[in-house]
Description:
Blueprint: E1 14-17, H1 20-26, E2 33-36, E3 39-42, H2 48-68, E4 71-75, E5 80-81, E6 88-89, E7 93-97, E8 109-110, E9 115-119, H3 125-139, E10 143-148, E11 155-161, E12 167-169, E13 178-179, E14 187-188, H4 191-194, H5 201-208, H6 210-214
Amino acid sequence: MTRPDIDISSTTEQRIKMSYTEFLAYVDEDAHAEWVDGEALIFMPPKTRHQLLVNFFQRILAQYAELVGAGVVITAPFEMKLRPDGNSREPDMLFVATEHLARLTDERLAGPADIVVEVVSPSSVQRDYADKFLEYQQAGVREYWIIDPREGVQQVYGYALAAEGHYQPIAADAEGRSASTVLTGFWLRPAWLWQEPAPTVFDVMMEMAPHALRSTR
């Protein structure tokens, strides 16, 4: 097996034809990379804004899940193999409910996450809005959140998997909050994401789940 030519110093995305076996053997586990339709996609390092958004969302989602004992949250780089013979994805963030923790192995998530979150970058628009949207829908990811921080956009789109197997938009309530249909009691106020400085996790939890938070003190 010839080692694929991977430029670890590249500052642009790379697409390299290789088998899934080669992908597992030669792509560093710390790299943010996906295996899609017979190609390895090696992504350029994320920008500061992207990572700040991922970190903020991860902290409030993980804190809430821990408070109510609902499951675990994992951020990239971590492999989600939706199907044994399908693509290998690395979402920016995923949530696995307690009842599905058996899908987590030492190496990857074998099967769909219950919630997937992707933060859009200029190079990932087609991938996040179209390719992954359809792929996650078909694989049974129960909820898909797209955070788009691009200038002139700054939107959050949540989608819940309906009974017929298609994503339906999660409508915001009168206060502008979008509530998860998977993680009961969890909701997002999109303005938090664009607020500077961002609210503290404690403040968010006091607004979202004050009774659960007080019970731990």
